[in-house]
Amino acid sequence: MKILVVEDEPNLLSLMRKGFAEKNYEVSVAMDGNTGWDMVSRHQFDVVILDIILPDINGLEICRRIRSAKNFVPILFLTALGSNENIVTGLDSGADDYLVKPFKFSELDARVRALTRRANYSEREANALKIADLVVDRVAKAVSRDGKPIKLTAMEFRLLEYMARNKGIVLSRNQLLENVWDIRFDMSTNVVDVYINYLRKKIDKPFKEKLIHTIKGLGYVIRNEEVDEESD
Hints:
Elements: E1 2-6, H1 10-22, E2 26-30, H2 33-42, E3 47-50, H3 59-68, E4 75-79, H4 84-92, E5 97-100, H5 105-126, E6 128-131, E7 134-137, E8 142-145, E9 148-150, H6 154-165, H7 173-181, H8 191-204, E10 212-215, E11 219-222
Parallel strand pairs: 1-2, 1-3, 3-4, 4-5
Antiparallel strand pairs: 6-7, 7-8, 8-9, 10-11
């Protein structure tokens, strides 16, 4: 795990560095706002720990800049400013958590781990394509339906992923050949139809609701509603 700590108290920095090192975390340090902003702009971190009162740029402004840049790295404010108003202001600036000094390192570590778990879950959710009870996990290259895992070959997965990314759109055979197999204008091959049948046997046949539909004369579409023009 890569952590950026933006903090100007040397003793506190030493404590956090030692504690996180024992957890085998990689810790980068900035002791002023400008350096902290520069580091988070140039490098990727799993968590950013920010003090609010800093030389140059304060932590609130750094947090706002990070969010304005569409960077959604988990941010934890670690500060002596502990009033309800301070906490609300910190969270409203875009932070994910707020811990008041003095603190126990064990609590800081627990909060950091919780932030990374939530971030990883959100990333998985963002990379999961869902059609009805079908889930296509683009990161894990895994497929399930109604909670049951479905084993696909690499090519079957590529075809299903492309169709899922284009949910509700009728895709011609040529479109599928070009985007899944990288074959252009070869009308003699029936590879699309063959693999659609493979997918139907695994994705649709064991379940009541059919998701893969044939649109006569046009191609195929994946969606979770019945289609009048369907022809199996």
